[in-house]
Specification:
The chain has 377 residues and is mainly α. It is 79% helix and 0% strand. Helix 8 runs parallel beside helix 11.
């Protein structure tokens, strides 16, 4: 096998970050927020290091740039929350060390007691991931500061300086808020789910239920499930970005994305049932005498109606037509009930085992779409 030229390897490695930077430069969005966050981190770290060098003893200067980095999370809310958690861990770890160091002295057995108390505090504390900083701070204060309160005071000052630099950098400017982009992603994944159902319906209507087609539908179902998870993470990130963010109050966008999260929960269950439906079609294709053409034609009609219902329930639609959505659901539900009533007596045992599963999956999808609290976003 021929080795790729070094220049081609370098271009391949650099292509993704370059494309990422181009997207950040061309339009506002998560990419631009991320690039700005990296630049803010560089600036906040340098400023914190410079100020700590001017104002504080050398032994504690490292805490300032470290804490500036910690305070710069993706959102203002998370930055404040993680900074407060770290300050809590610092107070606990330094407090334990200061009390034992000044009363019992600096000894090996004192260090053992300090670490024991710090590790217990880390287990019982409600500081999230920052609770693991308690024993780290305790060990650092004991070994570098010998438990002296003067050292602890300077270290707290360094941490406060770092937090201040990080938060100031985060607010100048605050991360932009993109609820419309999040809603668009929700809309896209709903529409792609509708398109998959439509494609399956068209194929069945034409009498195509081959294993190759069914495998392709299965792959699309798996990708849809991954996209639902990724979109949910995006929406939750935007919801968190809205909290304490001054830009969110000036954006003019509707504040909440809660209905989008509800819609994605519904869609996740719909996609799961759709995956089961596709597996049922794989079984139908494997039947010894093949799938019955009349059932596939009738089932294709049902899937067309389900696709219409999915389109009407898409949360990103502007001004959804409730009457049209209700009619689509009624038609799909009626068709499903008709097929369930028709085929148990007419289908052979092997076929009914498969077709009954297909009808149950379709019925479950309609049940998810008919949940009253779903909303339209």
């Amino acid at each position: 096998m021929r080795a790729r030229p070094r220049s081609a390897v370098v271009r391949c490695v650099l292509a993704r970050p370059w494309s990422y930077l181009l997207r950040a430069a061309h339009r506002p969005g998560p990419e631009r927020n991320d690039v700005l966050l990296q630049l803010k981190a560089v600036g906040a770290t340098v400023v914190a290091w410079y100020l700590a060098g001017r104002l504080l003893p050398a032994q504690v200067r490292a805490f300032a740039p470290f804490t500036a980095l910690l305070a710069l999370q993706r959102t203002v809310y998370r930055s404040l929350w993680e900074a407060l958690r770290y300050l809590g861990a610092l107070v606990i770890g330094a407090g334990v060390t200061g009390v034992l160091g000044t009363t019992a002295g600096v000894h090996a057995w004192t260090l053992a007691l300090v670490m024991l108390f710090a590790l217990v505090a880390a287990k019982t504390s409600s500081l999230g991931g920052q609770r693991y900083q308690i024993p780290v701070v305790a060990a650092f204060v004991f070994t570098s500061g010998l438990g002296r309160w003067s050292y602890i005071t300077h270290m707290v000052a360094a941490v406060a300086l770092g937090v201040g630099c990080g938060l100031v950098a985060h607010f100048l400017p605050a991360p932009s808020f993109h609820p419309a982009s999040a809603r668009e992603q929700v809309d896209d994944v709903w529409q792609d789910t509708r398109r998959l159902v439509k494609d399956v319906a068209l194929a069945l209507g034409d009498g195509r239920c081959a294993g190759e087609s069914v495998q392709g539908w299965g792959r699309r179902c798996r990708r849809l499930g991954e996209r639902v998870d990724a979109t949910r993470a995006t929406v939750r990130g935007e919801e968190e970005n809205r909290r304490l963010n001054p830009r969110s109050r000036r954006s003019g966008e509707p504040a909440g994305l809660g209905t989008c999260l509800v819609s994605l929960d519904v869609l996740a269950r719909v996609v799961a049932h759709l995956g089961s439906l596709v597996r049922g079609l794989r079984q139908a294709a494997a039947c010894t005498d093949g799938p019955a053409h009349d059932f596939l034609a009738a089932y294709a009609g049902l899937l067309h109606r389900i696709a219409d219902a999915l389109g009407h329930h898409c949360p990103g639609r502007t001004g959804p037509d409730d009457d049209a959505a209700r009619r689509a659901m009624e038609e799909a539900t009626g068709r499903c009930e008709e097929l369930i009533a028709r085929y148990p007596r007419q289908a052979a045992t092997e076929r009914w085992h498969v077709y009954g599963t297909l009808l149950i999956d379709a019925s479950r999808i309609l049940h998810e779409l008919g949940e009253p609290d779903q909303g339209h976003g």
